[in-house]
Every structure is written in C-alpha cells, then in structure tokens.
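Sanity check. The docking grid for fructose -6-phosphate depends on where the pocket ends up, so I'm generating a full predicted complex first rather than guessing from homology. Inputs follow.
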Amino acid sequence: MTERGSSGGLTAGSARLCILPARADVADAVAGLLADAIRAAPIAVLGLATGATMVPVYRQLVAILRTQRIDASRVTTFNLDEYVGLDRQHPQSYHTYMARHLFLPGGFSPGRTFVPDGVAADLTAACDAYERAIRAVGGIDLQVLGLGPNGHIGFNEPGAAWDSRTHVVDLSSETRRVNARFFRKSGAPVPHQAVTMGLGTIMEARRIAVVVLGHAKADILARVITSGPSLHYPATALAGHPCVTWYMDEAAAGRLPPFLRK
Ligand code: F6R
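Predicted complex below; grid placement will be based on this.
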C-alpha cells in the first residue's frame, strides 16, 4: 500500500492519498476503516454514499461485520443524497440501495439509518430537519464519499456553494447521463432533481474518506487533486478539511503526476 501526503494542489493540507493495486484492495481498506470505526465506537455516526463505487465496499463491510460478529445495531448513519420523486420502495431509490447492500445484511437498525426524503411534501422543511437530525447526534464521525465524473461529491454539482447545507439540487445533464445506467433496466426516467447534503454539511464531518475506482475516474481525479480550490470542481472544497484520505486503485490513480504516485 502506498500512503502519503503530497505537496501542491488539493493535497497540500493534511489529506493523504492511499493508492492500492486493485479495486478489491480499496474495498477491503475502506470496509476495514468503517468496521474499525464501529468496533471502536458502537454508537458511531457514519455518513454514507451510494453508487457503483460503494457496492464492493459494502459487500466487504457486511462480510467483516458478520465474520467478526461486530454489532452495528447502535450505529447511526446519514446518507448523502436521494433522488427527488422516488419513494423509498422505488428500485432505484437510495433507500432501496442502502437496505439491499448494507442496512439489512449488516444488521443496522431502521430507526438509526437516515436517508434524505425525496418525496416529502415540503422538501425544504425536510432538508432542514435532516440537518437538525445530524446536529442532534453530535455530527458525523466518519463520512465516506464517491467522486462524480464532473467532480461532484454528494450531488453538489459544479458551482455549488461551499457553505451549502442539505438542499434540493438540479442534477447536471452529465450526472443524469452517467446515472442513466442504473435506470435502464426498469425503464424509469432519470430524475431531474435530488436532495443532497451540502458541501458545508460534508465539511463538518470529523473524518472523510473519498473512494475512487477505475480508469473512467482517472482524469477527473487528477484534475481535482492537482487543481487549487475551484467552484468548477466541488470536490476541491475538501482541500479545506483537516482529515481527508483519498482511497483509489492504480487505474484511478493513472493520471496523477508521477511525483504523487511514487
Ligand atoms: C452517491 C453520491 C455520488 C456518487 C458519485 C460516484 O450517494 O453521493 O456523489 O458517489 O456520483 O458514483 P459512482 O460510484 O456510481 O461512480
């Protein structure tokens, strides 16, 4: 495992890069990080992401929880986002994704797993309530993030305000195009909007782990890591966070400058 701080660009602060040979190694490392957090603090508060990147991470986390008999029933979780207009039973909702990949097989308690409500009658009030719920449990101990192809984190699209809180966003055409792969089977249209934690919400997590896998993310990852803070790439907001680790496979790291890959 290569683990290092770096100089320049995004990682000039205390962020670390953890470059591992293959996606299975990254899944092992991030699942281990989450399992350790639960083992160390059974009432830990976790911030969770969805998407293709997180599937192998959650599969591995469930395996660790089961084989090591780690009790996740007192953990509280907050998901980053949910599509507007998809109820929790919709096959492509993030409620469904989380139940299938982590909450049910991992033994999490339904009363302690929070995912934004995409069908609330008053979405703004629901967003405010989500923020209050995070505050009520003392904030997020460990936040896991994926990286969107346009540099988004959560569904904070390019141009998002860095002090934003949980809010409704219009999804960019690129995000809708890329995420269409998840909707193809059901034939359901890709929603135009989502509820997402804001960049300000994410930045308040005490620790952050960003997970990036595959060649398709190599360009955007290199851009985010090497460019200075930029509104065009929401993930560059993480440069201002004191405790961020970027977990990636060699394929995703492929476009990083050589001095960061040594
Ligand atoms: C998902 C989320 C998004 C994804 C990102 C990467 O909850 O917040 O930011 O992490 O779009 O998605 P995948 O992993 O499908 O490439």
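Relevant for the grid: DSSP finds eight helices and eleven strands in the chain.
Also worth noting: Residues 23-40 form the longest helix (18 residues).
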